[in-house]
Amino acid sequence: MKSTIALKKLEQLLAAPNFTSKEARDCGVSPANLDYYIRNGEIERISRGLYRGSKAPEILSFQWEDLVSIIRGTQDGVICLISALALYELTEELPRQHWIAIKNTTSRHFNPMVKVIRMRNHTLGKTMIDIDGVAVPIFDRERTILDAFRYLSKETALKALKAGLNQPREKRIDINKLRTYAKKMKINIDPYLLASTA
Q1: Residues in CB range of 130: below 8 A, 6 or more apart
Q2: Is residue 166 a contact partner of residue 178, using CB atoms and an 8 Å limit?
Q3: Which of 127, 126, 106 is nearest to 116 (CA)?
Q4: CA end-to-end span of the chain, whole Å?
Q5: What is the pLDDT of residues 28-64, one digit of tens each?
Q6: Pairing label, strands 50-53, 98-103
Q7: CB neighbours of 53 closer than 8 A, spacing ≥ 6?
Q8: In whole angstroms, what is the distance from residue 162 CA to residue 180 CA?
Q9: 109-168 pLDDT tens trace
Q10: Are 118 and 127 contacting, i.e. CB atoms less than 8 angstroms apart?
């Protein structure tokens, strides 16, 4: 394949803040072509399987740039817990690591910037969020709060629950959805709801 033809096929991906090797393959561009463009300076390799065009726009939210790169390069990864709470403005804590949920059967190793949580139920409440034009997987507010009760301190979880109940209407958590998830996850949320609304 002539390099200009392959570059044309990648045109849309090169305009995005980053893209994966799978997305390049889906456009009909081989790993050999990607290597060629890296050597020629047309493409930068961010991490394993993750690339960006040399003229691609950078992610404006500097705080989340690494998180976006990591989650885009993690197969079946979902933003969770402290990272999700921070993105949803349900905590004042700034994550020192990027919290990512993966399937409990995954054995991949991550760098120290990533806090990996292996979960059995990896799809409940999974949704997408836009960070500077990049769609990334994240657990919704309700699932994130319930996970906080399971994996974090009770204090952090209660603060998140109260924040979720007091957010503006368009961001406020759905109590019915929270109870439905809690039942599936075997978490007794009602006493905490009562304490948070009293």
Answers
A1: 136
A2: no
A3: 106
A4: 67
A5: 888 888 888 888 888 888 767 778 788 776 655 556 8
A6: unpaired
A7: 10, 13, 14, 15, 16, 42, 43, 44
A8: 18
A9: 677 888 999 998 999 999 999 887 788 999 999 999 999 999 999 999 999 999 999 998
A10: no
pLDDT at residue 2, as a whole number: 47
Give per-residue burial for 98-136: e unless 16+ CB within 10 Å, then b.
Answer: bbbbbbeeeeeeeeeebbbeebeebebbbeeeebeebeb
Cα angle, residue 64 at apex, residues 139 and 154 outer, rounded to 5°: 50
pTM of the model: 0.72
Structure-token pair, residue 137: 């997987």
Task: For the chain, give the secondary structure using H, E and C.
Answer: CCHHHHHHHCHHHHCCCCEEHHHHHHCCCCHHHHHHHHHCCCEEEEECCEEEECCCCCCCCHHHHHHHHHHHCCCCCEECHHHHHHHCCCCCCCCCCEEEEEECCCCCCCCCCEEEEEECCCCCCEEEEEECCEEEEEECHHHHHHHHHHHCCHHHHHHHHHHHHHCCCCCCCCHHHHHHHHHHHCCCCHHHHHHHHC
